[in-house]
């Protein structure tokens, strides 16, 4: 009898890439709110969602993770990862929700936890400026005038970059936000003539608890999205940049809301 | 309307991590046949398989991939990856099959194509000696006396290594072989209280076509599997090493055989 | 006419791997003081240094760097790196100094700045627990009871790891310290029959300015150094562990003290 | 007494990043001959060299290395590396020589062996198509009509890429060639007010022996060099592409020719 929440499932159940939830996360975030071409953004939404506005957001995050079995962060190669998330402003049954067309991480455990939640995760390299607790020319101030940068590379090609100058504290998080995003949970079929009938195809909504947010700094930002041969992200490039943000966030994930099953038959190309 | 065989599904369908099959592969292989503890090996088998023998095999492979849409190997960062596969000798309905308890790759596209086929893929670093077409002290002969090494690291820890000395050509591939392995296709559930009811839990058998094998060199081998805190692979360590192999293989995947749906309720820990 | 402080030297002087100093650094540090075998430690010292005590230290650091030409940290892939430093307690002319037998970084720019200062830098992967500014199960407290881990891998093999529990604030840094280390600046010769007559072979002492230290947390620690086929670091393994530390440091480097030229002829093996 | 050819120098002399020569290499090469802007190319040459022509070459190579102490290729993580070399056509005392303005590798051992020979090495990611010994859609033919690609990324930004179609066997290697390149061996000074007086500043010529070349395939090529904020390589971009090549090479390095000492005082910026 083999055990485990994910593959590889083994006799002791100690080999799963990811153990069962709860999964606890804490991260430092740089984010940019921006607008993109209305029609192009709308085209990225799945069945069941309509476009609420052309306001988008991109998040760059340095995460640390643990679970209830052990203090995973004591072996940080198993705990830390960096992520870039793109979010769109959608409506589901007249309720505003966010939707994620693209997301990149740099560790397999994070990729798997993401797929289970419907995040369309791929591997990519995220880099972001850190602020340190001692005064240094090498560290931006975490406060008025502090300047931060972030960048994403995929397959050795730079795909996105931003520079943010903090100006003031803010009472609100960037929007669209990632906490309650609506995702498409999806697992393909490989049996011939059934490629268009995925084994799993569900509209789901993320659920997180014990969310904690640090003070939120807001300011000016610039952002660029570059041409890349293997992604349509450039269709979501900024038409104008609204604001940049820097904050920290903690949250726990151990549940998911099933909205409904999407069409059994999809278009592949 | 969004399109694509895998996430991310997008308006043009050009962003999927993996396009729909056929998937064409070619690889150089170093492999070791060995025996492990009978009882321990048996414990790794899923429902539906029984142990045929305690003979195991480990494969180290440098792959190159393409599909029918483009010559992917012209942008090799998207095409090449390295893999380590562990296989056990099982029976399914009295037919000998192989079963894969562990497999590691170093690219996300390979990981996703694997999950779709039921391979329990994780990320890991595989290294293997190459033979070159010019005479050099830096290159082993691809022939009698040639010595090759291979190693796997996971999370910055060396997990397995082998050294092989080629002795003679062989008419047969190592056994168990990877071509028609039986896998567990699996996608977890995240809704609370349903963690033990996976969304996909199927016994499947791989199907490949257009298989071509180079001449096969066989010889002596040593192999070690090291302690690692996050995998039970050490329970499959060699009790004796049978032989080492070196060959090249090409194959195409565009189908999968569904054997039967596994239990709806699983043990997680 | 080509320009630049390091190779590559080019027409505009904008291609050097490293620009001329000053170099500004800020880092978060986890450190362990420990004792090793007295005789073995003594054998690592170069000509001109004698052993002061068998107390050693190992530092794990997440650095961010900038210079005076630009805010390098806005393109963090060019600015951030992780480092593991081993230090021994030595005397130079009856003055206590530290000496570095081994150091690993993960970026070429850091490697080059190190070689120029005599640090014997190689590439390796350092991982260390972070503390975040929001309360989370995934983040240790930066204070009494907070637990931190760090690890070093070289060539896919784990070489060292530590776990530290913070207990109290401390007025003193770990010893030996890295700020004023004595290094051997060294550049080999490749002309045949002159391999033992290095082009540069100097005893030098580091010089840093504008040093700033955060509050220093001290506590209990465990540490292990593992066997590795290509380094003698295991000869410096702990006989006892004294204490663990966590602090942040900023400093600027733009000078070096030349102590004296070492022997023109060396032993290679 | 500590020993070793390079840092780290240790009691047993077994820790040096690089052991003393001979160093044996074997590699598969994709190369492109092209012309660049005459004036711009000329500006990259150091004192002592004049421009012979505006013909340049770029080489992408998958190397395997060993020495006389052990079969290093049996632990391939210590032996294999990938490299991109740019070469210019120069004259030294009326003799044609090649000169390397830029070179990137992906392993520290290769970087150090390079610096010792005057190669201006930095870290970068090189990818190149492989040809396999079995027929496959995923492998180009190593012969007429075979198509190969190669690419270089530095700091997560693609810097150069090529596509080559083989047309015929050739009797001659691409030119300029790397075997007898003239390099500037260079080690900076860090003592304040002496940054412009490098410790080592020599014009040297590479020397290799036991060179073996496979059959050489030649054909058509395209090549692009992309903008990158931290390198002047784009000033050497193609004005026309002459030809592409694919071959294998083996060589041994254990000597270097010292031409003369360059100026004691340099321009930094």
UniProtKB/TrEMBL annotation, chains A, B, C, D:
It is an enzyme of class 4 (lyase). It comes from Clostridium aceticum. This is Acetoacetate decarboxylase. InterPro entries: Acetoacetate_decarboxylase, ADC_dom_sf. GO terms for molecular function: acetoacetate decarboxylase activity. Its EC number is 4.1.1.4. Keywords: Lyase.
């Amino acid at each position: 009898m083999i055990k485990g929440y994910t593959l590889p499932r083994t006799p002791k159940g100690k080999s799963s890439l990811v153990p069962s939830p709860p999964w606890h996360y804490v991260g430092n975030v740089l984010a940019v709110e921006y607008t993109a071409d209305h029609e192009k953004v709308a085209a990225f939404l799945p069945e069941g969602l309509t476009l609420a506005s052309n306001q988008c957001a991109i998040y760059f995050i340095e995460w640390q993770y643990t679970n209830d079995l052990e203090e995973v962060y004591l072996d940080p190669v198993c705990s830390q990862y960096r992520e870039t998330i793109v979010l769109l402003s959608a409506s589901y049954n007249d309720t505003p929700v966010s939707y994620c067309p693209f997301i990149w991480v740099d560790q397999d455990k994070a990729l798997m936890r993401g797929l289970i939640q419907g995040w369309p995760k791929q591997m990519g390299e995220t880099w972001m400026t850190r602020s340190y607790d001692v005064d240094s020319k090498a560290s931006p101030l975490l406060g008025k005038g502090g300047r931060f940068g972030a960048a994403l590379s995929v397959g050795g090609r730079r795909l996105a970059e931003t520079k943010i100058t903090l100006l003031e504290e803010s009472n609100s998080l960037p929007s669209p936000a990632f906490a309650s995003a609506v995702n498409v949970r999806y697992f393909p079929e490989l049996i011939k003539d059934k490629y268009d009938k995925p084994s799993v195809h569900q509209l789901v909504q993320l659920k997180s608890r014990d969310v904690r947010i640090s003070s939120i700094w807001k300011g000016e930002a610039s952002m660029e999205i570059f041409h890349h041969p293997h992604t349509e992200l450039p269709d979501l490039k900024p038409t104008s940049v609204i604001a940049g943000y820097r904050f920290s966030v903690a949250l726990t994930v151990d549940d998911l809301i099933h909205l409904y099953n999407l069409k059994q038959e999809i278009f592949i190309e």
